[in-house]
Glycerate kinase
Amino acid sequence: MRVVIAPDKFAGTLSAVEAAAAIGAGWIRRVPDAEIVEVPMSDGGPGFVDVLHAALGGELVATTVPDPYGEPVPAAVLVVGATAYVETAQAVGLHLTPEPERRPLAGSSRGVGELLLAALDAGARRVVIGAGGTATNDGGAGLLAALGATADKPLDAGPVALGGIAAIDLAAARERLAGVELVLASDVDVPLLGLLGATKTFGPQKGLSEEELLLVDGRLRELAEATDRKLADAKGAGAAGGIGYALMLLGATRTAGVDVVAEAVDLAGHLAGANLVITGEGAFDFSSRSGKVPYGVAQAATSALVPCIALAGQVLVGSREMRALGIEAAYSVVDRVGAERAFSAPAEALADLAERVARTWGR
């Protein structure tokens, strides 16, 4: 049988490449004559550039940018012809800041703006920005500052510093990007503000308390009122703590990050003739429908009339919700081997789960 393995990263434990390899290794132990096709995926979050580099080749341009709190961190821009690929998580990823050290009220997206500058310096005329997995929630204000925007309040000192902002001049930033096509490749389609917006939805995982959620959402509302309030309601404006909004202010068009990667890796081509597709991620939950890899892979599998199953660190949806996503069944590493082993030996644990699942699906 031909099995296409197309997972996202398992956040905090395995990259997409490592996850695909582990699933493939476990499957082969049970079905040694299976044809395994590993197609690591990304939704625009951590691993976006690595997955695209493996699929497209190109040149990795190394640089150093500030992390959310201004400390230098190494990063790279992928340049393929006239197109550059940028990953927000390389500059301001949640993984760069251990939980006790997170200061979302002061975190700035300036480093992402500097990654954009590196892409321009490399000669890119089209820049695709994978947006997701960030520790920042500043509406992209820091990014705007790095590109030359000015305001009557500091733009690169975190969301709290935006209080009272009334005027922003984007002329220099827009001039810097003249003639450059910007594409926002986001992992979610949430708006910037409100109950379904960036802060309320993802602020808690970045360390914001209930009281701080209200404060920060209010600051981003002030930012939107000073720029383009209507644009704040656009799908994807809330991606990456509002970096999506800042990019849209500069003329970016939005697409799902998983679609960008699916096209680059030729997922549809790999699905031709497949008998089964296996996808996965760290936590398979209700947010998976909002532009995440399992949903994107499942939709592609449905179009190709190939059954799709998911292997995940944890499965937090029921069978009805799962099938609504286009996934026949989902299996949890934690349920199979326990949380301790799932985190201490993630590749082995995922391979063991794949071997067990192959008893049912490998026939």
Q: What stands out?
A: The longest helix spans residues 210-225.
